[in-house]
Structures are given as structure tokens and as C-alpha cells.
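Kindly review these C-alpha cells for lecture notes.

. . .
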Amino acid sequence: MLVKTEASMMRKYHSPNLSRNQCGSSKVQTFDAALPLVWSIIKQFDNPRSYKGFIKTCTILAGNGTGVGSVRELELVSGLAGKTITEKLDDLDDASCLMIVSRIGGDDMLENYKSTITLHESEKDEHGGMSKTVLIESYVVDIPSWSCKEDTCYFADTIIGFNLRSLAKLITTLASHTLSNFEAC
């Protein structure tokens, strides 16, 4: 169940109007970690390899790699349907924990792909438990003429799901390391 803030963010950022030749979806992932830790990983446009396992290299083609307008070229690991992807950082808002990235080139099947990520602090349980962070990632993509909506969304959902599971492992490791360092003080 989404809390009010998450529901309003879903309406504002994750409910696009799709044309007939587009599809999209959204994924929600909860992390047992504070929002600043999760955001510090997500916002690294110049370092997607920290949790995206399908990326072999990342080269910044324009901008400084951390600011809006930066462009990166990603070389994909072999075995994927494509070798490179070029992406542009459309929006990065630290105050709202919002990141929007558009695919502007490449040879994979996700043409005109646009991803929106928002982070939200979840409500604490009745015991005032550990801080949790909720990540919502949604996308819109054109459906290739040689494919269908279901296959296109399945492909994109699979990639995002893999990335979110990898991110969850990284966050768990970093959060436990941070906690153990804190307890050592």
C-alpha cells in the first residue's frame, strides 16, 4: 500500500499518457535504508555500473556527468539485444529525489525510452522502526513495428527488475556496513 506522498508522486510523475504505439509500466522497490543512502547511488548518472549489471562501460559524451543535459554512452555486455545505448539526463532534482533519463540513441529495441525515478521515505511502523526508502521507477517506450506491447514491456520490465534486485543487494551491503561502523563508535 502506498502512503499519501507516494500516491501523489505516482499521479504526478508515473502516470504518463501513452500513445497507441507506446507502452509503459512502473516498478516499486522498498529498501531497508535511509533515503539519502539510496539517493546517493541512484543519482550517479556517470556511474550506472554500480548496480546495473548489463553495462560494460559508461562514457560521458557531453556535460559533466552529474548535471542536467549530460549525455552518456553505455556499452552493453555481450548477449543482449544491442551493443550501445546513448542516454541524456533530462532532470535531476535533489530536493524531490527525482531523476528522468531519456534514451536518445543506440541499437537496442527500446526506442524513445524514457525513465522516471522518484524516491520517498516510507512511513515508520508503530514502533518507530528503521527508516525505509521506497523507489518508484516508471518508463514509457515505443513499441517496435516488429514486436507487440506485451513483449516490449516484458523486456523492459525484466531489465528494470534485474537492476532493482542488484541495487537492493548493494544498498543492503552499504546499509549494514554503515550501521556496523556507526555501532563501532
Q: What stands out?
A: DSSP finds three helices and seven strands in the chain. Strands lie at 22-31, 55-62, 71-76, 84-93, 98-106, 114-121, 133-142. Confidence is low (pLDDT under 50) at residues 179-185.
